[in-house]
Amino acid sequence: MTELKEIDENNWLQAAQLKVAEEQKFFVAQSIGILARGYVYREDRARVFAISDGNELVGLAMVRDLDEEPACYDLQQFMIDEKFQGKGYGTEALEKILKVLGEEGKYSCVEVCVKKEAKAAFHVYEKAGFHDTGYVDEDAPGSCNLMYRF
Length: 150
Known about the structure:
With 150 residues, this protein is of the alpha+beta class. It has one domain: 3-Layer(aba) Sandwich (Aminopeptidase). The chain is 27% helix and 32% strand. The protein has helices at 12-16, 31-40, 89-104, 119-128; strands at 2-6, 47-53, 56-66, 72-80, 109-115, 131-132, 143-149. The protein has a seven-stranded mixed β-sheet. A hairpin with a 2-residue loop joins β2 (47-53) and β3 (56-66). α3 (89-104) packs across α4 (119-128). The longest helix has 16 residues, at 89-104. The protein is globular, with a radius of gyration of 14 Å. It starts with a strand and ends with a strand. 31% of the residues are buried.
């Protein structure tokens, strides 16, 4: 069963060792980069979730508050380790993240920027209810913004 855990002194090293397949490295930051971004964006209430199955970490997600238009949660990073992909962890973890954010209730939506070539990621987001906003960020060519509304 997939759980979301805080990163702490007991699991940060295991979290830092998570990795995606070589061909996916263009789509998401390395795990150590995700942990660093969580620290750097702490003023924006950034938090990194460890995605686990029991005591085994299977992935990471980083969410931060985005107070500019559209004010929303920004799911900035989301990854499942290459050894655990294709087993439903991404879908389950995303559902749990959306539940946590929905219950928190600070914003009415979640935004994510996805590379167009990341077909598996698109599938997971669309299955969860994300929709293409049509917005293209000039700082992220080849990507599109997807949004989920609570």
